[in-house]
Amino acid sequence: MLNNNIRKSIAVTIILTALLNGTSFITTTKAATVTANSTNGPTTIDAQKYNLDKTGISDTSASFQKMIDSYPKDSTINLPKGIYKISDTVKLKDGMSLIAESDVVIEGTGKNTLFTTGNDNTFKGIEFQNCSIALRVLYVKGVHIINCRFTNNIAYAAIDIYGSSDCSVTNSYFYNIDKYGIKIDNNSSDITIDKNYFDNPKVFGGYRDAQIGGHVYCLSGSRITVENNILKNSGGQGIIFGYSSTLGKGTTNCVARNNQSTGNGQEGITIYGGVKKLSSGNSIIGNTSKNNRFNQIEVWQSNNNTVNGNTVEESIAGRGNLGAICLFTTTGTTVTGNTVLSAQNNGIDITAGSLYNTITDNNIANTNLNNNTTAPQKGNAILLDSAGISQPQYTTIRNNKISSSIGVISKSGIYSTSNSNNHNKIDSNSISGYKSGFHSYAKMTCGM
């Protein structure tokens, strides 16, 4: 490979144009260095030269691939307005960019992958429809998707990132995706998902039961940043930092920040490591998560995570599960500065053998909206519970404000299903509006 200091390439910008009068022209421009756009003007190519059908009536896969193959790496292709029907998979060279001037739709058969990328590819302003996978990002780096749309019957994943790095998806729109909006797996790293909008036509994706899937579905990887997105009505999670049972790998050092997750068919935002706790060290910061089917924010079988500054709400009957914020078999996780506006069941649930967790400076209000009157472990502001596994121990619960704006709630501010010493530290909490504030069982877990 040539040293970068002596390497030279021809940067060609291709604009495919079908003029109304049927005429065309061709010019070429060379640049001294590799660049996405020539400073001396683009190369304009006649769309008819490649027999590209822009009406969407006939399959133009072979012609599209021929056009890609005829130009060097680092070329930028500006697609004119039209519908391009692709039945096969188009393979891009390294450094290529596909740019839409306006109203460009690339449509598949409902079962195919539309594009496999090379390194350093860019997609901008294109709408992808009716395929299994729109963009397959496989063992490459530097792929960037900007201002694109993914709509209308994408059966598996709009974007499938696998074993790749230094990629981003920004300012894009995902609508009516059957399974995964963006799926990330196999140690992908340094991925940014920013300022995108995800939605489906119906709450929970229209499914009666929870689905395996989600808008941003991370199975394994590190340094994945998911921020400033709106995520609504998935059949599964809004965002999940999970693990791959096939690869035996999880997600680490990832962050979900400043997202809005609403009406999804499982949790709003979850960290999930499985029984081997393969995911750890992730953060959920400054998000709003409300009226998802199960827990609004969940850390499940995962250690050393941060849940900070989030707002959660369960104002619709039938939403929620164990707690608006739930820690299940987690060790060393900090839950601080969060606001629980309402909860159908518990506000914060620490359960199933969780150890050495810190719950501080949270505001919790209006729990037990499902009006449970029989089970003491349901409807509390903060619950310590075994969930049939083991009691949480070495838990610090301090400086939380617990209140009610709906009258006296016939539950506890802080409750435990154990009355044994579990070495917890519970102090300096403000509790009002609950029938029992600091329940005697919770006190006993501190050795009182």
UniProtKB/TrEMBL annotation:
Coiled-coil residue spans: none
Thylakoid as UniProt keyword: no
N-terminal signal peptide: 1-31
Keywords linked to the UniProt accession: Signal
SMART domains reported for this sequence: PbH1
Recorded superkingdom: Bacteria
Residue ranges of domain Right handed beta helix in the record: 85-202, 216-368
Keyword Signal: yes
Name this polypeptide is given: Right-handed parallel beta-helix repeat-containing protein
Originating organism: Clostridium frigoris
